Amino acid sequence: MLYSDKVMNHFLNPRNVGVLADADGVGQVGNPVCGDMMTFYIKVKGDRLEDVKFQTFGCGAAIAVSSMVSEMAKGKTLDEAMKITNSLVAEELGGLPKNKLHCSNLGADALHAAIENFKARQKSAEKGASMVVDSHEHDEGCACPYCEGTLEEGEKEFCKACQIELEECPSCGGITKKGAEACIHCGKPLAG
Amino acid sequence: MRKAYFDHIAATHLHPEALRAMLPYLGDVYGNPQSLHSAGQQALAAVDAARSEVAGLIGAGSEEVYFTASGSEANNLAVKGLAQAYQAKGKHIVVSAIEHLSVLNPVKSLEKLGFSSTTVPVDGTGLIDPAEVEKAIRKDTILVSVMTANSEVGTVEPVAEIARVCRARNVLFHTDAVAAAGSISLNVRDLDVDALSLAGDQFYGPKGSAALFLKKGTRIVPLVEGGIQEGGRRAGTENVAAIVGLGKAAAIARAGMEAKAARAIPLRDLLIEELVCRVDHVVLTGHRTRRLPHHASFCIEFVEGEGMLLLLDMQGISASSGSACTSKALKVSHVLLAMGLDHALAQGSLVFSLIDGTGREDVEYLLDGFPPVIERLRKMSPLYTQYLKERNDALQR
User: Fold this and answer.
1) Residue range of the domain that includes B276
2) How far is B10 from chain A (nearest CA, A)?
3) Whole-complex ipTM
4) Which of A151, A154, B130, B145 could form a disulfide with B174 if both were Cys (CB 3.0 to 4.6 A apart)?
């Protein structure tokens, strides 16, 4: 089985799915490029999370993580909720497959983004301040297309392992070999 | 629970007759085909018979069939082996954007060794234009590799036309027929290809059984060096039982191909026509008619593949997806992106591939079980909520 019983339980019976139309804070992280996207809605009373709801586009792990985060956060104070970490969520779920651990990052991030949004709204004292969209963006070109090795931020023009120059394809945005006739991903000709 | 298997492209079951043919070679007949004694010669006779059956499936000569352990190995051998053997002539290779990774990654490896490549694009249905291949061929091009059919979207490529282009330009042509062989009629002479890969687990043979057809007189540098097995082109003691199973499966596939396709095509078409009716925002991927007889593939908007697979599996339905989350590497299918689908839509990829024995009742079971799965996931999807909101806003305006 790919997932633990607890993960499957939360995936099959997710708690707190939905939208809060009159939410006090909204947080959204991820994007469909990396596979997962989560939106958390919170309702705050005093300094406690009176209600938490979420929507998730993503795999089984992403849905289970969102469900678990919502359950863990509900009824907690804002400070307590900010202390919910990715590893705590994964632990509560009885572990996640290694290549799905990044999903647990998104869950806590989305909750925290909603709380930050609530605080920002309070500060500006204007209900309906713009939604905080977390900068947890996955860049498609974070790996060399030839050796799959990670390219560090600011080093996207050269893969040290392969010793080749790289560039971004103007058509599909993928990282491809510089000077090649066509993009390795979409096959569209590269300018220049 | 009822079971409905719709994952032909991952693996088919072993045909009972293939299993029966294999059993002696997992038991009493354990000789090495290279041995001179009668135990060895008995194994050799079985390997030779299987070679002739595999050759028969694709209209080749027995001496042109080389057994390998997987379709991936056959593709690696073709791309790397032919490139190395002909590099004195040139160092340029042409592939399509939707080739299997066992073709694309060897090309990447060759690039590190000083070869260069051109990737030919596909249209929105996954079809490759032979004219694009012709445009990509240069003076120093030595090899073109374009698949016969794509396993993710089912599109069958114009291989004969592409082969004609290659022949006219005196360039070798390899086709990865792993998804197609055993399901559609292929004749290497009519197609006029120089090399062709096939795998037994795609037509009811055992896993670990595959072959590369290499036209007589074509040079190749082996990947595995050592003994003189497979004419010196692939060293290592033969996997006799797997080879025997492949031979049997090839014979069965050849004899029943037309009848099987005649059964599968109406079911495939029923699935395609009905699925897009029963759930909104579902698109067919791949070509509507130029596709494998057992293949129906879709993208379902606003939902992600893995969730669909897990919920379908709860109902005993096995399918596959090209979404990022379902791949261990967490990358969305390069095939769908090359066809111009955006990331969000490609994440909703779902492939249903029929096997022998899939009946109308299985298709009905799938069609009934499918809509609730999508409804359930869309209720959770922020993308769907966003879509509904935008639609409402537009209606009010």
Assistant:
1) 4-9+257-387
2) 17
3) 0.86
4) B145
